[in-house]
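Sorry to interrupt, but I need a hand with the structure work. Could you write out one complete protein record for me, on any chain you like? Could you add the entry underneath, on a fresh line?
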Amino acid sequence: YPGLRIVAPISSTVATAMQATVSGWPEGTILLTDVDLKRDAMSAATVALACSGTVTLELAMASCPVVVGYRLGTLTYAILIRLLTTRYITLFNIAAGEEIAPEFVQGRCTAENLAAAVGARLDDPALRTSQIERQNAALKAMGRGLPDPSEQAADTILSLLAERADHDVYTAPAA
């Protein structure tokens, strides 16, 4: 992919170690340690390869199609697979009840599988658009666009306090 730019948002605590890791990556790879620029990078991305977690929601909210990879230790995976009650690990896939973002977990999390899924999205604008639309629909089903729950809770508490203040007139006891 001529002109492909790789941007990897990372913690500043691992920046030095990551420099060595990416030294063999394509020229122009950017290690982004500034958290304020993370959303801009996500919005500008054509496609993202991400580990399952909060970042998949952040990428979806930035309208970036995402491919998910996740690998656990063998024992941890053996225990977890018996506890899982859902078919998917990505929250918006769970909400949609379908695999919107392809998930490559454990043995399926290979360089070949990840590269093929990312490549398919780089090659096919219609696939990217379809995935973004489906991600947005899943986010809407999860409550995107509704009032912020913490603001709703704060407004409710303030309303209750105001009602109480209107009804409860405090008078100091006589001295």
User: Anything to note?
Assistant: DSSP finds eight helices and five strands in the chain. The radius of gyration is 23 Å. The chain has a mean pLDDT of 88.
